[in-house]
Amino acid sequence: MRSIWAVAKNTIKQALRMKVAVVFIVLLLVLLPVLGMTTTGDETLKGRLQTFVSYGLSLTSLLLCILTIIVSVYTVTSDIKHRQIYTVVTKPIRRYQFLLGKLFGIMMLDVILLALFSAFIYAYAVYMPKKYKADHKENPQVSNEITQVNNEFFTARAALVIPEIDVTREVNERYQELKGMDRLPDLPYEQIISELTEQAKVRKRTSNIGQKLIWEFDNVKPLTKSMFIRFKYDVAVTPPDMQVFGMWYAGDPNYVKYGQQPETPYYENILRHSVQTFHEIEFPANVVPKSGHLAIAFMNIYPNNTSIIFPDDGLAVLYKADTFTANFVRAVFLILFRLFFLACLGILASTFVSFPVAILMCLVLFSTAAISGFVIESFDSLSSDLNIFYSYSIKWMIRFLPQFDKFSPTEFIVSARLLSWSILARCAVSMVFIKSFILLALSFIIFRYREIAKIIV
Amino acid sequence: MEYAVETFSLTKIFSDWWGRAKVYAVDDLNLQIKKNEVFGLLGPNGSGKSTTIKMLLGLLHPTKGKAVVLGGDGTDPKINSRIGFLPEESYLYKYLNARETLDFYGRLFGLPSELRKMRVEALLDMVGLKAVANRSVGTYSKGMARRIGLAQALINDPELLILDEPTTGLDPIGTRQIKDLILKLAQRGKTILLCSHLLADVEDVCDRIAILYGGKIQTQGRVRELLQQTNKIQITTEAISDATVQKIERLIKDEQAECEIASPLDKLESFFIRTVAAAQQQAQPTSGAVSTTKIGGFLVEESPVEKILDKLVSAPLTEKAVQKEPMTEKVVQDESLASGPDEHLLTELTGSPETSVSKPVAKEEKVEEESAESQQVPQKEQIRKDILDRLTDTSSPPQKDDRQKENS
Fold this sequence. Notes:
Chain A is α+β, with helices and mostly antiparallel strands. Chain A contains 16 helices and 11 strands. Chain A folds into 2 domains: 2-152 and 327-449, no CATH class; 206-320, Jelly Rolls (Sandwich), CATH 2.60.120. Chain B has helices at residues 49-56, 77-80, 98-108, 113-126, 142-154, 172-187, 199-205, 223-227, 242-254, 268-281, 297-300, 306-309, 318-323, 329-339, 342-351, 359-373, 380-392, 400-407; strands spanning 3-15, 21-29, 32-34, 38-42, 64-69, 83-86, 160-164, 191-196, 208-213, 216-222.
């Protein structure tokens, strides 16, 4: 244990004194405050906060990721290349302990830097509303904006689960109908079905003028006073002023569906919103009926002259579930898991290839992991063509990559979405306890059996 | 008896990318190093000395055969904690300073902090780098780095010390100090495996040597037995009158034997050390290593109690060490005389203390290199004879002008 600690300490010294880490630290020290002073977002306080925190966290995460890759690869390959390792592994230290020491060193550096920079981001974000208030004393809108920020940014809200809509029956009917009319396109059966399914799903999310869309939620337990509908409009024909009207309803489903007068109050309002950006509507939580069965309804109304489509992730019902601080801390942990994975990856790479190759390898894997959702999707859509080969090789490899974009900390923080302990635990298990562990075990095995000394004859 | 180091048909073949055998770096090596023995592994460049050592320590895996170090495996931490190793070059972390470097290695051995601090200071003192201990070792000269490398190998007070060319880049005082240290450690019952092609060093300290060529042992045995010329006798006396000398000469001639008569020369090494010691006494400034001839207290003291062992009780060895006459001195002396004008050597050595010990050795190495490089592999017997001839060559008599210089 003592020897692991010695290697760890030495690794930190190496990273700092060889100026590898210093470059990144200076860069962040300069960029973060500049970011804080220059971001304006959409000129509202909320926009400003969202932009700053989103850029700040992304930048910190990105730079620390690259730093981790470089330091972890450098520290191992340099010891091998410059042969300091001869005098280290011949001391009473096992090879895996040497690698563990390196990992501890890197992670200690990461933890310190991450704590430092995220603390700065957090402190600045908390300070921003205060400064804004002081700067705009004469503006009567300020207190509204502050309330909005407290409700929609400095919070952690959970979303109600939207039940999957079953369209199989419709799709089959439509297929038979097309078949009966002999208008089936010249495509394989699966493809026709998947296209029809897609169409049916979009239809379910589309509201023509005067048409009502209803979403129903079960087992809703309101925990706080207000709840929020978060939504985005897509439109068939963009109106000249980019604005559309909509009538929103929240309350007992029986009222909106069958017109029965509900026992509980309900929320109903006509609102005007711009298209293609996310908006939020606040409604009182006491509209939820005792049964816990809540309906949210939307109606496309005159004077709109376009149908309105809600994109796939275009609607969510949110409620406050935790504090901003707790959410922020968990988001920072997501970054830390990322860094841990990358450190293990860097160490693994440097146990069998030299510095430039290892760096390249890690950066490629890192960027693939950052867009893993896209990669997995595109490979899946290709899978029909490369079936067996794909499912046994690439698919497995891609699934092994951590999904950095799925566990993106900024997305949770910017939309004030609850990053629950269970999500965090899932990420920890998958990224740290399974994937990183496999990488580490592989690197221990390779390092255990490789010849440390270079061949000189 | 149990050996400190024993190898069984140790073989290392370096193969090319396709796995085809390319070079036999070490070929069926059976080495036995007894406990408490100073063993010299000699050989020209590329003869497999370093490869052997690296296999002992698990830095390279043997292609065939096995090595047993201190009764175990050289990669086992328990065994490692009893070994001190100095690789062919001091590979140090450039960004650490000398004290941090030693502290780091001390931590690797898991030494408790108090003991570690004491040893670090004692070793810094011993290798003469206390004054520059806070400078990063990246700025050190080769010799200074070598000293830290040596200190690093001694921090655990090892039972077995493996030194791969320990004196390269060291000034004569440093070299002398290492030799004294080796002898001291041997007295304390340590085993030392010394690997070098600086023959003079090996000769002064080793009990037994093995000469490697092409990864095979060409010859091995006790230094004294290998080098002794049984057909010659040397008589050294106090200054006696010319008449007596002539009488002796006559007696020898009566036996039909040849004889040479000369005043023995002091060793250049001893002379050099005296000169520098005098300069040090006048406290002339230097930015380099301060050559003390002290040896770290914990290395020489033979107290059973660890704490006392590590007290900084360093025995001043200067005078004793300089006066001590190694038994093979005559041979060495003749070598140096045969190889070049004394004056040239002297200025070179005193002018830059970093150059290696003595020129004749370097020359010797060159000869060996040439023989190694000439592609047609000569007969083993021939090489052995060649090397041994050089080691035992005493034919060249001291020259006259040398004696005159000595007198003036």
